[in-house]
Amino acid sequence: MxxxxxxxxxxxxxxxxxxxxxxxxxxxxxxxSLEGVISLGVGEPDFRTPWHVREACVYSLEKxxxxxxxxxxxxxxxxxxSNYLERRxxxxxxxxxxxxxxxxxxxxxxxxxxxLLLPGEEVLxxxxxxxSYRPCTLLAGGKPVGVPTxxxxxxxxxxxxxxxAITPLSKAVILCYPSNPTGSTLSRADLEQLAEVIIRHDLFxxxxxxxxxxxxxxxxVSIASLPGMxxxxxxxxxxxxxxxxxxxxxxxxxxxAEILHGMYKIHQYSIMCAPITGQMAAIEALTRGETEKDRxxxxxxxxxxxxxxxxxDLGLDCHEPKGAFYAFPxxxxxxxxxxxxxxxxxxxxxxAMVPGxxxxxxxxxxxxxxxxxxxDSLQEAIExxxxxxxxxxxGDIDL
Amino acid sequence: MxxxxxxxxxxxxxENSRRTPDILAAIVGREVNEVKAMIQDMENAKIILxxxxxxxxxxxxxxxxxxxxxxxxxxxxxxxxxxxxxxIYRFPEVRSVSLxxxxxxxxxxxxxxxxxxxxxxxxxxxxxxxxIISTTTHFKLKTYKQEGVIxxxxxxxxxxxxxx
Lengths: 399, 164
Ligand SMILES: Cc1ncc(COP(=O)(O)O)c(C=O)c1O
Description:
Bound molecules: pyridoxal-5'-phosphate
Helix content of chain B: 25-40%
Radius of gyration of chain B: 21 Å
CATH architecture of the largest domain in chain B: 2-Layer Sandwich
CATH topology of the largest domain in chain A: Aspartate Aminotransferase, domain 2
Low-confidence stretches of chain B: none
Helix content of chain A: 40-55%
Largest sheet of chain B: 4 strands, antiparallel
Distance between the termini of chain A: 49 Å
Order of helices and strands of chain A: HHHEHHEHEHEHEHEEEHHHEHEEEH
Radius of gyration of chain A: 21 Å
Oligomer: heterodimer
CATH class of the largest domain in chain B: Alpha Beta
Number of domains of chain A: 2
CATH topology of the largest domain in chain B: Alpha-Beta Plaits
Strand content of chain B: 15-25%
Low-confidence stretches of chain A: none
Largest interface: A-B, 29 and 17 residues
Number of helices of chain A: 14
């Protein structure tokens, strides 16, 4: 008996059927089909994982670390995470009951939403935002509510805007600062104002602080370190960005023991444990990786200054991104939409960037340009964009 | 006084000496003129000695032979290591000379167009210098990494062109 494809689709979960396809996908196909593209579209470090970490992983394989670990993560890694967070960000979590090692920060975000949400409850998401928050909220049965932010505020969510978006169904806020895609950060004062609203409305916070180490001006402040916030915050982070370990798939969630226990149960049944090889590498990175991490951060900072300057010299407004590895220039002066601009830049300048609209409506008119690429490539990309913009402004490019 | 910006400039120039003052200025976040002046100061102070490229000569058809020679000397009153080193580094075939701690005193690199030529230099020129008591010569067979540059780096960028 044959079944028609249509009838299969109609029998799948409507939540899955209704999920919009990733806006990045189309650009990925296009960029992949062209030769000689310089990509500023990459959301991961250009550095390879530092050698001492890779070497430690090889050693762990030689020693026979090839099996499952404890569900919550290898105890040595949980202890290393606890020490690291205390040392770097002044937050303290008990390794036995408040820390869960996950398959990337991605799993931690998913677990957090699935643990917190009752059907139909709302999750407030400052936008432009990382692309997974909306779909993961929907998959967890919740309702994503975007809170637009603007370049005038350097894409920082204002306490008043948050408060205006709160309804009786609001359950949690996702805070991702330093931000993918805008590179914006929040100061202690910004966070204190948000915390006041969050506490008053009794909301939870999912703090995706995966870019915390990549803070170039001032110190990163974790919202979990503010008075009254630890118990209502799920701090999510991981090894991917700061330690250049995207492929190892190690992240973690830290929160009070009750929430963590809920997340742990899902993790236990659906994932079992994060990969042991990655966990072994993460122990090495967290305990001995400071120097290499600092070297990478310093290099991102140099590229950041270079690219922001360069965009401004090209006549594009570009707010100063104080964290992560993204610049978020405005292309409104060209009169094109982000999608149009990104597509034309890809075809005519062979430079790949991600249209800001992919990250929410308030990202329209902007592009995300990742500077996790060598200075020499950035320089070449800027030269190409310069030529492209001149032609565009002269009307030499067919729209 | 060297500031962190000076140090950044040195690293950036050492990594790629073709970077222009404009680009260096953008990277360190200073005015172009200020960066030019800093570089000029460091050239005057002989902190920056020259601008050069790292070349893998093994890929070029030459008869270049390099030897590293461990040299033991007995410094005598009035003749320190420095003046013995000078007598060595003045020879154009000598590419580098360093004073070492440990089992020998000077480490020198010598280049020639054949093993015989280097051997002749060691026996005729080097070992006859007063105060040199012994030399141990090691010929270089292959270079894997030099000045922080891996010569045949097999690692590539495997990242997806676009990712979230
Ligand atoms: C804001 C943000 N959160 C989470 C992730 C996922 O990271 P991981 O590799 O730890 O799953 C990313 C990766 O791009 C990210 O940009």
